[in-house]
Amino acid sequence: MLALTARFRSDDRGATATEYAMLIVFVALAIAVGAQALGNDLNDLFTKVGTTLSGITIPTP
Questions:
Q1: FRET pair for 5, CA 20 to 30 Å: which of 12, 23, 44, 59?
Q2: Over the stretch 6-23, which tens digit does the pLDDT of each residue have?
Q3: What pLDDT, on the 0 to 100 scale, is given for residue 30?
């Protein structure tokens, strides 16, 4: 029984898998936050462009 307990204590594969899972979660979170910020900035840009273009009148010949 002591050998079995010692084997489980020395096995760190589960810890490595947990670390990789946490790394993946943090990277996904960073991508999601960055994409949302980029989306908001693009929305503001297209709104400004649309507002500017709607004020332009094209002369008819």
A1: 23
A2: 776 676 666 788 889 999
A3: 96
Note every long-range contact of 11-16, with CB atoms under 8 Å and residues 24 or more positions apart, other chains counting. none
What is the DSSP code (8-state) at residue 57?
-
pTM score of the predicted model: 0.57
Mean pLDDT of 32-42: 95
Q: Which two tokens stand for residue 31?
A: 């991508």
d(CA 21, CA 15): 10
Residue whose token pair is 């810890």: 15
Measured CA to CA, the distance from residue 29 to residue 37 in angstroms comes to: 12
* Residues in the chain, overall count: 61
